[in-house]
Amino acid sequence: MERLTKEHAIPMNKRGRPAKYPWDEWFTLEDGAVETTLRLEKGEDYSIETEHFRIVVNKAAERRDGVASTRIEHEGDREFLKVTYRQVPDIELELPNG
Q1: What are the tens digits of pLDDT across the range 52-81?
Q2: DSSP-assigned beta bridge partners for residue 80
Q3: pLDDT value for 1
Q4: 19 located within any domain
Q5: Is there a domain that residue 9 lies in?
Q6: 67: domain range?
Q7: How far apart are CA 23 and CA 40, in angstroms?
Q8: In this structure, how many other beta carbons lie within 10 angstroms of the beta carbon of residue 60?
Q9: Which is nearest to 7 in space by CA: 96, 82, 71, 90?
């Protein structure tokens, strides 16, 4: 029986341009933490429509082997996107020999 891990996955191409947002900083987990929560402000941390930014956040989390849940919040005329990022644990797949 062969066990597959992330090392067996087909590598993804990286884009040649630098990231517009500091994903590695935002999605860094403290030692022992399983998730991190951010509160990003429209106009300060991002400039596109919040609904579109939610999609960008989810794609960035996937590229870092994680998942993100999001919620839009308002304070007066300010808009925020609350993001909770979780790392997806490695799984081992068992394949039958053959």
Answers
A1: 999 999 999 999 989 999 999 999 999 999
A2: 41, 73
A3: 44
A4: no
A5: no
A6: 34-90
A7: 12
A8: 20
A9: 90
Does residue 67 contact residue 86 with C-beta atoms inside 8 Å?
Answer: yes
Element containing residue 93 per DSSP (H, E) = strand 93-95
Q: Within a domain: residue 42?
A: yes
Residue 67 · residue 61 · CB < 8 Å: yes
Q: How many domains does the chain have?
A: 1
Residue length of the chain: 98
Contacts of 59 (CB under 8 A, 6+ apart): none
Which of these, 42, 12, 29, 41, lies nearest to 85 by C-alpha position?
Answer: 29
Give pLDDT tens digits for 7-28.
545 445 455 678 899 999 999 8
CA-closest candidate to residue 6, choices 95, 94, 97, 91 = 91
| Cα 97 → chain centroid | 34
Residue 76 lies in a domain: yes
Rg, C-alpha atoms of the chain = 17
